Amino acid sequence: MNVLIKFLKRPVASSLLAILLGFAVAAAILATTGFNPFETFGTLFYGALGKPKYITNVIIKATPILLTGVSVAFAFQTGLFNRGGEGQYVRGTSCATIVGVTCNFPAPIQIPLVVLSGALGGALLGALVGFLKAHFGIHEVITSIMTNWIMLYLCNFVVSTEAFHKPNSNTALTVNPSSYTMVLPQWKMSDEGIDYLLKVPWLRDILLKTDLNFGFVVAIFVAVLAGILLTRTKLGYELRAVGFNPEAARFTGIGVKRSVVTCMLISGGICGLAGALNITGISPHTITTLASQEGYGFNGLSVAFIAGCSTVGCIPASLLFSGLTYGGMTVQQMMGVPSEIINIMIGVIVFFTALPAMAPKIATWLERRKKARQSIDTDANAGEA
Amino acid sequence: MDKVVLLLGITLMYSTPLVFGALGGVISERSGVTNIGIEGMMVIGAITAATTSYFTGNPWLAFLAAGAAGAVVALLHAVASVSFAADQTVSGVAINLLAPGIALFSCRRFFDGGATTPIVTKLPKVFGDGWMADTPWANLNVNVSTLIAFLACVIMWFVLYKTKWGLRVRAVGEHPAAADTLGIDVYKTRYVCVLVSGVLAGFGGASVTIGIISQFTPTAIAGQGFIALAAVIFGKWTPFGTYGACLLFGATQALTIILGGGQSIIPSSILAMLPYVMTIIVLVLFVGRSVAPKADGVPYIKGSR
Amino acid sequence: MEVSSEYAVQMHGIVKRFGAFTALDHIDLDVRKQTVHAILGENGAGKTTLMNILYGLYKADEGKTYLYGEEVGISNPTEAIRHGIGMVHQHFMLVENFTVTENIILGDEVCGTAGVLDMGRARKEVTKLVEEYGFEVDPDARIQDISVGMQQRVEILKALYRGAEILILDEPTAVLTPQEIDKLMEIMDGLVSKGKTIIIITHKLKEIMRSAHECSIVRRGKYMGTVDVAQSSENDLAARMVGRNVNLKVEKAPAHPKDVCLSIKGLTVRDERGIEQVRDLNLNVRAGEIVGIAGIDGNGQSELVDAIMSLAKARAGTIEVKGVEVQNTSPRKVIDSGVATIPSDRHRWGLVLPMIVSENAVLEHHGDEVYGKGIMLDYDKLRAYTEELVSQFDIRPAGCEEERISGLSGGNQQKVIIARSVTHAPDVLIAFQPTRGLDVGAIEFVHKTLIAERDRGVAILLISYELDEVMDVSDKIAVIYHGQIVGEFEQGTVGEDELGLLMAGGGSQ
To answer: What pTM does this model have?
Structure first.
């Protein structure tokens, strides 16, 4: 009991409780609409973790939302709400594609060049949002939503231009292969590589059937780095001070406007990085005409909130999110359960993480009940004596 | 002349869902609750309207049902943000995640796994028929929800500024502790306002699926809720200001459509950016720092004054 | 005490607990009809809690309340209002962008049919009240445009409009100028003569001596008795409130001023609306002296501080720190040139509440190399530094370095600000309302620290709305009126009356 109470008082308990409730609500909906919840969840886990290939894909799909999640969490901790992750992500993909198609250097130069150009694209877009907030007082949520749409159409424009359009398709030209960040892209396609992989089926599954790439490693690195930046550096200290109390920050000599722009620059850069890594890491290695928002930025919000806006917490949260959505596809294929049940589940999880007081409240309630029972016990003992 | 009337017609058509959503934002934020979940409530309104109209054939009933459904979703937001003093942004984001999930899930359940509903009966049109039919005014052929939206705006203005309830709502949004000490129930006021915002957002969703188009599709509501929130800020949290802002957004949309018709020298994707670019420019030029209700987004906890 | 209809309010054996903490421990209160009854106690003693119980905002765990000899149970403000109780809170409960009339009628509106407001009739009713009690308030003015004294009168009108017979005033003089306090005293006398009963909550002895008939004293949630004010003295009341003899006079040796450290010449500053709030202001502060600026709130004090800190633009004139012009640079540059500030509102300008104590302890100096090399911030160093401050300045609770600063009491929060200002060895210290909202013990501490800093050779500019504070602590007193210094005096060469007159724009230079 004591362990439980202590646990419930920790912030992570709120997240876990919310996840539990997400599953519970989903189970109730499944049961009332005529599906077996246990079977569905079983399939869900199988679909996410059942084969090495599945696990790899979960990790691959977790990469961009881990980064957009870190971006949101980072901004949130400094008092800004970056709703523009989507646009910054798309900007990252567009910039990476443009540079990746135009330039063709050896990989050690090409990869950083392409990746950083994507990050820079996102960063500048984020900085624009920050600039409009700092200097004109326009709420960052509005401008970021607008830039999301502007970037979507800008991406479509890039696809349609003569220089980048791939004939007879709705995509742009593929970036030069020296930009690829998959694990052993050449070796796994060589005769030697295929010979070897035929002998090791699990590795064959991972390397040949997925686009396993180094993106997730970079993303984890960025998540940790962002955490250190926020809590252990002078810049992070200033950004948080501005976020919590801009007036006090100004009074004590911190440049508030500069901080807002800096924060959005970093936050946008992280989203841009997510876009760039998807171009270099997974096929088709280019941008496609978009009909609607792809949701990377929006899913980043969910990841960040499930993580309680801790940048490092985004690592497990992104894996959970990715596991649920990827496993959800199997659920739809194998059981005919609409995969939207996953969206509902994630929605419920985020909804309950919005009630951060919930777990500590339960803890206090348990404590009080325990005390009450103890006092009854002591009263009873006293009576016996 | 033709073009002007056409522009006006399309403007009114596109602005109607925005007006409903934005009015919902106004009433909620005026009482001190940020409602970023308007988009989600509109989605629920959209699916409910289409489904109800399909099964009953009565678009009026569908319209009302959409309002009720919006209110149910709003209740979630109210419980979280008023009773639990939750982070209203997070709660709103959760609703925006939940709502499309629920909408598509039910769509697939009701219509054999399809992501869209069949074509359903729409709300009746006003203008454009009768004597107007053969005149240029026929292009003003808007449906009745446009009128309802305008009426809702007038009513909200009257209630907010001319009645005691409006005075109380505004007081709760500015200084809840002051209202509380005068015996005004802050929680109840906020609950009612959030619910009304849900009803209006639900109407907004309906005005798309049984007003503009005649079915539910996954992209029927694609960002209108967020543009509506921009309109709230642009309109400085007043009903008429917000109405004007929605018309402006509608007009840029209409302009895009008219400019995009026929042989256009501007690439279509550049043209499509226009409404969004214009919104930012307008905000930079004319709005600057608009002042939100003082207690907007701040949960009220009794005793912490 | 016997329950009798001679008493407007009687509260007997009131107990209130918040969790494990007992805020009120069997408190008694007996308020005679048609008197001014003061409740005296330090900040946090429980006096406001007691009144919140009377007003129905909190529920007592034990005890009984009687009005005019009848037992009542008041569980919310609406019932309190119905029983004829009105409360004016320390932080005014006014909607800033509403008019005076709208604020007064809120919750008890004058309506035509179907809840439609009848503002014409409402205005007439408010005007009638204003005239009846001789308040000078414009019913159509917006709260944000009227003075604090007037806002307070609106609060009293709110209670009277609801038919209040018993008025509770929570720290009513905390925000008023000497002239406004006089006006308030007049108003209170007028109300009592019209049959009202007034309870004032305060920790200011002077006002009790001037206005109250009886005074009940509360110390740490316990009842310390009721005294007849006419038979008592300030020192007697203070000793009862604090529980020991306190020295109300500030002890200090004569100042030994040296070179001019802060020199302001011809300074003109406009506010956001473009109105000149500081005009052609001249002022010198020497090392080793305290210059106090006396003045009514809103006479350019905030703009002066903002201009010194480079937060507001100096339209004309210069500000020199040790001979170097710093006007229109940046707050960072001003701090680096040796200026430290104790801001007037610690929550707004002085602290970042969600951050921990040690983070707040370096707020102005986090960039210094001592607290971390290069871009890194070394939290071990932060902690060590803060531990030193905590013991040196007796910041409580001990060991609070890693706690959020929002958990500390107001006095201890202020100690953190003062500690961080003085330990970084400034040449100039701007103390703007340094004792606002602090209790007697903490005020004593702040004043002692200021004087100790002066003796170390710091040039101190003290800006306060509390005339007593300026008169007691400063070596030189300057009076600010409409953004100009309208008089400068050595300490002890000028009386309260003369200063009060200058502060209000009267008298001659």
So the answer is: 0.86
